[in-house]
């Protein structure tokens, strides 16, 4: 059955237009974004609402939703990324498989309420807290997938390889749940993918060697080769921290991005997560390979990582996608606008990313939140094109945050002023999962998350680190 949605305004060709309909087939695909001469069996009127493609969150660690606000003191979490990890490790070590499910549902619910229809979950919790594999070595991965299916969000599980703590470092006890051997990783990943090979819900997968420090080169090559033999996207943390770059130089004589380039590991299927501390020469390397950068501005400023040179990357033709990463805040449009805002503070100018390649700032940032993310994850969503996935969001045109718009300037107002209160309905593959701002399982999800939260932090001093 085809359903025609009639909004007040529909996103089309970079702007919002009236008098257009969005037609969705029974297969959950876009039939046409503009045709009004169809005779669908169902018509849904979306009065005073605008319809736009759903947002794509390329990089998420769902379990880290549990540490929001718990690491904001030097007394307990130190002054930088490396000491912050102690708080994160405490949370990671505290979670049962049921807890992993409950916390992931909370993170995914918040994403949906922010207009996100797809999440790329960079998953590296694999074993029991003491490092013992579960009888099903993919138990925790399946818990995360089940959490996404419960909420209704589309998931691409980016199963992460984590083989060591770092160059010439002893195993860190906080990372015990992350470790697998390279052979175990490939075997377990293949088994997990096989479990969902005929999944009607459309669960997708990618492979995510955690970083050069966590996956040495002799293991990285076969893992990436295996992923490419399966036509899976490859995601990897790259150059997030200067110390990471320095360690890579000590081990290999090159920085991470240069190493990946020289070893021919970059490609159109490769997404470099963060890529903050890269040179102009390395930007050219990634551009030549047609790779993607996933920026996570909220997390990057929360951790003090640094600022992505988005202007240089975009001028080189590199696509930039967005991720919520540590879940310090979940707001894809906030992440999009921060790409430009961070550069404004550095360069003391405005609209730094405007008119690169002749594209307006708002259109460019919107692409980061939608089509660029979909491409990074190997999906056909993020836009209203024939046969793309019917993943879309409605916005209340009477919301205070966007009052005073016109069809011509609505995109700019959305990108730089939208509050999440304006997001009312969310559809994934044509199925409605958020209705008038409410999710059918919201009360249960929040209540179960609060139980986990109380149990994990009950013996703390209030800052998020156990006594």
Structural key phrases:
Urease, subunit C, domain 1; 16 strands; 16 helices; four-stranded parallel sheet; 467 residues; alpha/beta
Structure, described:
The longest helix has 17 residues, at 97-113. The protein has two domains: 3-53 and 385-436, Urease, subunit C, domain 1 (Roll); 55-377, Metal-dependent hydrolases (TIM Barrel, Alpha-Beta Barrel). The protein has helices at 74-77, 81-93, 97-113, 139-151, 182-195, 217-229, 242-252, 256-262, 280-289, 297-302, 310-315, 332-347, 361-369, 371-376, 410-417, 442-457, and strands at 3-12, 15-17, 22-24, 30-32, 42-53, 55-60, 116-123, 154-161, 204-209, 234-238, 270-274, 292-295, 319-322, 392-396, 423-428, 431-434. 36% of the residues lie in helices and 20% in strands. The model is unreliable at 461-467 (pLDDT under 50). The protein has 16 helices and 16 strands. It is globular, with a radius of gyration of 22 Å. With 467 residues, it is an alpha/beta fold. Helix 3 crosses helix 16. Strand 7, helix 4 (139-151) and strand 8 form a beta-alpha-beta unit. Strands 1, 2, 3, 4, 5, 14, 15 and 16 form an eight-stranded mixed sheet that branches.
Strand content range: 15-25%
Based on CA atoms alone, the radius of gyration comes out at: 22 Å
Integer tally of domains: 2
Quickly count the helices.
Answer: 16
Oligomer: single chain
- Top CATH class of the largest domain: Alpha Beta
Biggest pleated-sheet summary? 8 strands, mixed
CATH architecture of the largest domain: Alpha-Beta Barrel
